[in-house]
Structure formats: structure tokens, C-alpha cells
Design a protein that fits this description.
Blueprint: H1 14-23, H2 27-34, H3 53-63, E1 67-71, H4 76-81, E2 86-91, E3 99-105, E4 110-113, E5 118-119, H5 122-128, E6 132-140
Helix pairs in contact: 1-2
């Protein structure tokens, strides 16, 4: 069954929404798993303040029980051939201190953008693909 894209509820909440999409949970349930005891309505940033985004991503995935590995794939079409879901971390060229996460849904054969809460169109994918920083292939969901 294809994944249901969860829309981010915070300007910096794309990673939370992407994990929610993978887990089949809503945004606030997932935020609570990632940040126990914190209220998403009172926290300014739902993202990270770190230079090591890959480590922060793997730490978050581990906290919610997702097993994954770093991918060396640099093209979106390569993910379309791979039989697993993936998180794709985009590092904006114009704002390199900011990242964005989209989800590759291997069952639905589409890329999901939590900013919109729906699939990415071809034009958007062409725009972000050169800005792909790294991908994370999902090996096992809880």
C-alpha cells in the first residue's frame, strides 16, 4: 500500500512529517516520539541546529525504531529502481544552512513533499535533484 504523505506543521518540520509518513502516524504523534515531553505548539524550531545532519537524522530514526543506511545514490531515478522507501535530504544552494526532506515511496512509486502534503511534480524534482545532499534508505520500519 502506498504511503500517505503527512504535511509538516512547522516551517522546519519536514523531517518530522517525513518520519510520520513512514510510520503511518500523524505529525504531532511523531513529534512526541522524537521529542518526549516537548509541546510542538511551543517549540519554535522542529528541525536541527547541527552541522552533522546525517548523524542527527540517524539518531532520530533510531529513537523511533527505524533501521536505515546512508545511500550513495545521487540521482532520483536510482531510488525509483530500488525496492525500499528512502528519505532524501536536500541542502538548499541559496541557503546552505537549511535542509529539506522529501520521502521516496517505493510502493506508490512517487516522491512525497511534506511541505505540500502530496506528491512532488516533475518540475520540482528537476529543481531539487542537483541539491540532493544525501539519501537514507529505509531497511526496516517498526
Amino acid at each position: 500500500m502506498p504511503l500517505r504523505c503527512v504535511q509538516q506543521q512547522n516551517e522546519h518540520g519536514c523531517f518530522v512529517a517525513s518520519i510520520a509518513t513512514l510510520l503511518g502516524k500523524d505529525y504531532h504523534q511523531t513529534y512526541s516520539l522524537l521529542h518526549p515531553g516537548k509541546n510542538p505548539y511551543y517549540e519554535y524550531s522542529h528541525g536541527w541546529n547541527t552541522n552533522n545532519v546525517a548523524q542527527a537524522a540517524f539518531d532520530a530514526l533510531t529513537r523511533v525504531g527505524i533501521k536505515a543506511h546512508l545511500s550513495s545514490y545521487r540521482r532520483f531515478r536510482t531510488y525509483q529502481k530500488y525496492p525500499k522507501h528512502a528519505l532524501l535530504i536536500i541542502r538548499w544552494t541559496l541557503l546552505p544552512h537549511l535542509c529539506h526532506t522529501i520521502v521516496y515511496d517505493h510502493k506508490g512509486k512517487q516522491f512525497l513533499n511534506p511541505s505540500w502534503g502530496r506528491a512532488c511534480d516533475t518540475q520540482y524534482l528537476k529543481y531539487v535533484e542537483p541539491q540532493l545532499d544525501f539519501g537514507i534508505v529505509i531497511d526496516k520500519l517498526p
